[in-house]
Design goal:
It is built from 20 helices and 7 strands. The chain is an alpha/beta fold and about 375 residues long. It is globular, with a radius of gyration of 21 Å. It starts with 9 loop residues before the first helix and ends with a helix.
Length: about 375
């Protein structure tokens, strides 16, 4: 008989930490607050205490303040499974959510209502007071010009479904140039990452089941948003491929016209730098002749971090400030591969997905 493999307990996960502190300089909340309690090591100690002394109740504000960006995990020499520990702790001790976060999580699980709400938001946007405009105005809805059948599927996501029409059209255009294509099934829902990070694992599992069934007839799923990719790859049931990596691996067939010295600022989301293909974006953009690319310095999480911009707008703005300050004066567009980051960084100058920008220069 095969032995039953038990997943490690929360206490076991916390014990992986050797308290070396190497993660501290990489943690954006520690950089802001300068307190051990706002560091990965401090949070792991608190989660160990909660695991070993069950029954504690209350609000755990330093745990709730964790962005879930996993920067600590990516530099940890002891391979602490920080995210797993965080999610499992939040299942038992759910974070105190604002009404905006609760509403967003509910809407993200009900895609048609979310799309309808964003359509209404687009219509009302010009007359809304500034405080009622937490997100940029969505573009006008249009049908995605995708074939009905293909071996590839493009993941549309929840909020991205309304905001990424142009990026999806651009991806289809680039695929067509490669002699390839992709279908856009309408049934998948949210990737579930925001629900997981809120400790709502039952809701995340239900979204994962919906996505698995929607993608079962495809060979692979192409994902535009680096933030959704990591959640989806654990649940889609078929290979999940970052769209830019897919294009970069076939880039010799893509020819671009000159950008005539145009200057772009390239933001690298946490989910692309540590957990994904940050270099693929730069490699693809570098194929556009006479394009000036300034890769923004790594100043930490931009503050988008899932629903953080709804949870704590002031802190999200503090985290965003150094990113915006690093944009050169001569750049006329900001490129970022993650929908959450783009929504949070919009305002100072136009923000686009790198694939949407590239398609403008396709020969
Ligand atoms: S989480 Fe990793 S890097 Fe951070 S203190 Fe613990 S062992 Fe060190
Ligand atoms: S996930 Fe991000 S915010 Fe949370 S402890 Fe790790 S580095 Fe800090």
């Amino acid at each position: 008989m095969l032995p039953v493999l038990k997943s490690p307990s929360r206490a076991d996960l916390a014990r992986q930490c050797v308290k070396c502190g190497l993660c501290l300089p990489h943690c954006p909340t520690y950089a802001l607050a300068g307190m051990e309690a706002e560091s990965p090591r401090g949070r792991i100690m608190q989660m160990a205490d909660l695991a070993e002394n069950p029954g504690q109740a209350g609000v755990f504000k330093h745990l709730d303040a964790c962005l879930g960006c996993r920067r600590c995990e990516s530099v940890c020499p002891a391979d602490v499974s920080y995210e797993q520990l965080l999610v499992e702790t939040r299942v038992v001790h759910p974070p105190a959510l604002t009404w905006r976060e609760k509403a967003a999580l509910w809407l993200m699980a009900h895609k048609s209502l979310l799309n309808g709400g964003l359509g209404f938001y687009r219509t009302a946007y010009p007359i809304l007071p500034t405080r009622w405009r937490p997100l940029p105005r969505p573009p006008a809805a249009s049908a995605d010009p995708a074939p009905a059948r293909s071996r590839n599927a493009i993941f549309t996501g929840c909020v991205a479904n309304s905001y990424e029409h142009h990026a999806r059209t651009a991806l289809l255009q680039l695929l067509q140039t490669l002699g390839d294509d992709a279908a856009i099934p309408s049934t998948p829902g949210c990737c579930g990452q925001a629900a997981r990070h809120a400790g709502q694992t039952a809701r995340a599992a239900s979204l994962a089941a919906t996505n698995q069934s929607a993608f079962s007839s495809f060979d692979r799923v192409l994902v535009l948003a680096s933030g959704c990719r990591s959640a989806l790859q654990d649940s889609a049931g078929v290979p999940v491929v970052d769209a830019m990596t897919y294009l970069a691996e076939r880039a010799e067939k893509l020819q671009f016209r000159s950008a005539h010295g145009r200057h772009v600022a390239l933001h690298t989301p946490c989910t692309a730098s540590f957990h994904g293909p940050g270099n693929a974006v730069h490699a693809l953009l570098s194929r556009i002749p006479d394009l000036r690319i300034t890769v923004l310095p790594d100043t930490g999480c931009c503050g988008g971090a899932g629903l953080h911009q709804l949870a704590d707008p002031d802190r999200a703005a503090s985290l965003r400030a150094p990113v915006l300050a690093a944009i050169p004066e001569t750049a006329d567009v900001l490129l970022s591969a993650n929908i959450g980051c783009r929504l949070h960084l919009a305002g100072k100058l136009p923000v686009q997905h790198p694939i949407e920008f590239m398609a403008n220069y396709l020969l």
